[in-house]
Amino acid sequence: MLQRIRERLSPTDIVMWSIGAVLLIMIIWGSVATLVKGVYSAHHWIDFIIFGLAQGSIYALIAMGTPWSTGAAHDQLRHSEVFMSGPYTAYYFAAYFYRSGLLESIR
Prior knowledge:
The chain is mostly helical. The protein has helices at 2-8, 11-37, 42-69, 80-100, 102-106. The radius of gyration is 21 Å and the shape is flat. It starts with a helix and ends with a helix.
């Protein structure tokens, strides 16, 4: 079993897993230190998590479409840009309506 793992792991895999582990440790350490200091309330942490998930989803959609669009079937698989135009358009329209006061007048 150990031999099979050695055959499958390359030095690049080991370096990438190490970098990921170091980043994960730094994130956990920084989060715990921030929680202990009490810099942010629970409301702020919920906002951070939601914002992080939203941004991560955006990056994931873009990352999914990039290799597909450079492949042989590039005309049929360029969907991430289309998927991303919807949320961004909705965000900018909602921000505009909020600033103009239209959303307050509907209530």
